Amino acid sequence: MDEFHKQLLVLFSIPIYAIFIPLEWILSNVQGRKYYTLKETLINIYLNAVNAGIDLLLRGVALFVLIYFSQYAFTIDWNPVIYWIVLFLLEDLLFWFEHYVDHNVRFFWAVHVTHHSSEEYNLTTGFRSSVFMPFYRYLYFIPLAFMGFRPIDILFMYALTQLYGILVHTQSVQRMPKWFEYIFVSPSHHRVHHASNIPYLDKNMGMALIIWDRMFGTFAEEMPDEKPVYGLTKPLDNPHHPVKIIFHEWQDIVRIFKKQIPLSTKLRYLINPPGWSHDGSSKTARELRKEWYAKRTKK
Predict the structure, then answer these.
(1) Which of 31, 51, 69, 286 has its CA 20 to 30 A from that of 138?
(2) Is the same domain home to 168 and 117?
C-alpha cells in the first residue's frame, strides 16, 4: 500500500484506537454497564494480532493475484469520483456475499466463528478477527480487478470500510436517524448480527451498507422485546484458551469425520450451513427461526 493510502488509514484509525475505545470503556464503567472485561479484551487483541500477522505474510500474495487478473481487465474510462463510488459499492456488495458464505457454509464458518464467540460487545470486539480469513478473502475481489480497479485501491477500500465496521461494534449508540439506518449499517443493525437470539441469527451481513441485506432478505430490525444476547448459541467450554478459541469448530468437524457415516454425508457437514445434521440432532439457523416464529404466532 503506497504512502498516501497509509496516511489516510492512520488518519481514520487514530480516533478509534486512541479516543473512542477508552471513552466507551470509561463511560460504560461510570454508568455501571461494564461493557469491557480484561480477559475478553485481551483475547480480542490476541486474535487481531494473529490475524494481522497472517495478513501481513499474505498481503503480497493477495496483491500479486489481483495484479495478475488486472492484466486481463476490460478498459473503462472512469471519472475519478465515479471510480471511487463504484469501487465502494461493489466492494461492499462483495463483502456481503463473502460474509453470507461465511455464515452459511460450515467450512468457512469454522474460520469466521471466532469473531462471534465473545459474550461481550464493544469496540474491541471489532478487532476480534476471523484469523484465517486472509488466506481466501482477496479471492472475492478478483471481479474488481477484471473491471479495471487498481489492486492497491481495492485493498485500501477494504481496509477503509473495515474501520467503519469496527465503529459499529458498540452498545453506547442506541439508534441512528431513520434515513441513515435505511442505507448504512448502524450499531443497532450490527448488534443484531452479533446476537445469538434465534430471530437474529445470520442477519445483517453488510459491512458499511445495509441495503444489500434489505435487498437479499437477510435484514432484521433490533426488537425492543428481544434484547441481544451476545456469543454463540452453544457457549464455549474454554473461551479464553488461545488455541481452542481458534480451532474449536474444527475440532467439532474432526469429531464428525470420525463417525461411522458415509463420506458423502461427512462432506455435507462441510458445505451445508452450521447446525445441519443428517439425523436431526442439531438444527440450522433457518430451521430454528422457523420454529421460533411458529411458536410466537401461536401465542
Answers:
(1) 286
(2) yes
- Can you read off the three cell numbers belonging to residue 13? 484509525
- Tell me, yes or no, whether 52 and 105 share the same domain: yes
Query: What is the overall mean pLDDT for the chain?
Result: 92
Measure the CA–CA gap between 75 and 262, rounded to whole angstroms.
49
Whether residue 95 is contained in a domain is answered as: yes
Task: With H, G, I as helix, E, B as strand and everything else as coil, classify residue 187.
Answer: helix
Using only C-alpha atoms, the chain has a radius of gyration, in whole angstroms, of: 20
Domain of residue 293 covers 244-298
Q: Give Cα separations from 177 to 180, 185, 200, 247 (angstroms).
A: 5, 12, 21, 40
In a domain, 239, yes or no: no
Q: What gap in Å lies between CA 111 and CA 200, rounded to an integer? A: 20
Overall number of domains in the chain: 2
CA–CA gap between residue 123 and residue 128 (Å, rounded): 10
Q: Do residue 190 and residue 134 come from a single domain?
A: yes
Q: Taking the chain, what is the end-to-end CA distance rounded to the nearest angstrom?
A: 56
Is the Cα torsion angle 157, 158, 160, 164 positive or negative in sign?
positive
What span, in angstroms and rounded, lies between the C-alpha atoms of 182 and 178?
6
Each residue of 206-224: pLDDT tens digit? Answer: 999 999 999 999 999 999 9
pLDDT level of residue 5 (50, 70, 90 thresholds): low
